[in-house]
Structure formats: C-alpha cells, structure tokens
Amino acid sequence: MSDVAESNDDVTDTSATNTAEPVHVESQSHLQTLVADEDVVLVDFYADWCGPCKMLEPVVAELAAETDATVAKVDIDELQALAQENGVRGVPTLLLYADGELVERMVGVQEKSTLAGLIEQHS
Predict the structure, then answer these.
(1) Between the CA of residue 98 and those of 21, 23, 30, 90, what are the distances in Å?
(2) For labelling alongside 72, which of 4, 48, 57, 118 has CA 20 to 30 A away?
(3) What is the arrangement of strands in the sheet containing 101-107, beginning at the earlier edge strand?
(4) 3-state class (DSSP) for residue 66
C-alpha cells in the first residue's frame, strides 16, 4: 500500500466542497456560503503575477489536504471588489474564519507550521 492511499483514508467529504483541494471562490456569495457552512476556513487572496503567492501555493495546497479546514483561494484580479471588501491591500493575504467569524489576518508568506497551528487552534 502506498502512503498516499493511507493518508486519504481519514478524509471524509461531508459537504459539496472537496476539502482535500483548495476551493476556488467564484463570488462574494460563494465565499459567504463557505464561511457560513464550514467550521474553519482559510482564505488565500492571491494573484497569478505575485511571486510570494506562488511560493505560498504549495503550502496552501498541503494544508487543504492535511487539515480539516476548508481552504479557499480568491484571485484578486478576477474578484477585485471582493478583495476590496475584505480589506486586501497586498498579496498574499490570508484570512482565517472560525465558526463564521474572522479570527486571523496575515499578509505575506507564512510558514506552514504557523498556519497549521492557527487552524488547529480554531478547530
């Protein structure tokens, strides 16, 4: 048996979202639904042209696969109004929601261990 098969054994999909991969947010209402429906949501506001965002991308993908949190990605170029409404002034910006409330805001590349610790703290 491979490690990949074993690591997927404890992943349960209890909603329409696949929590093993980042969810690409399509609109303000989509983000609101995710935040309302999921216990812990990490939102990554990013841009394709952003070097630090590219550095953070594998970390975000790993967190989606390894934690119970829903990880959402918002392309600030596609959803400029959503980024503005959330006070995003630089990318990457990470927002962590727990039980529908904003509990953490981080700007810049973050260590995986820091993000995992915050997710665990609010789970």
Answers:
(1) 19, 17, 17, 23
(2) 4
(3) 23-24, 70-75, 40-46, 93-98, 101-107
(4) helix
Rounded to 10 degrees, the C-alpha dihedral 123/27/8/114 comes to -40
- Amino acid letter, 17: T
Q: Which residues are catalytic?
A: 50, 53
* Chain-centre distance for alpha carbon 100: 14
Nearest Cα neighbor of 98 from 64, 65, 69 is 69
Strands of 16-116, DSSP E = 23-24, 40-46, 70-75, 93-98, 101-107
State which fold the 16-109 domain adopts: Glutaredoxin (3.40.30)
Residues 6+ apart with CB under 8 A from 59: 110, 111, 112, 115
Distance CA 55, CA 121 (A): 24
pLDDT, tens digit, 9 for 90 and up, residues 22-74: 999 999 999 999 999 999 999 999 999 999 999 999 999 999 999 999 999 99
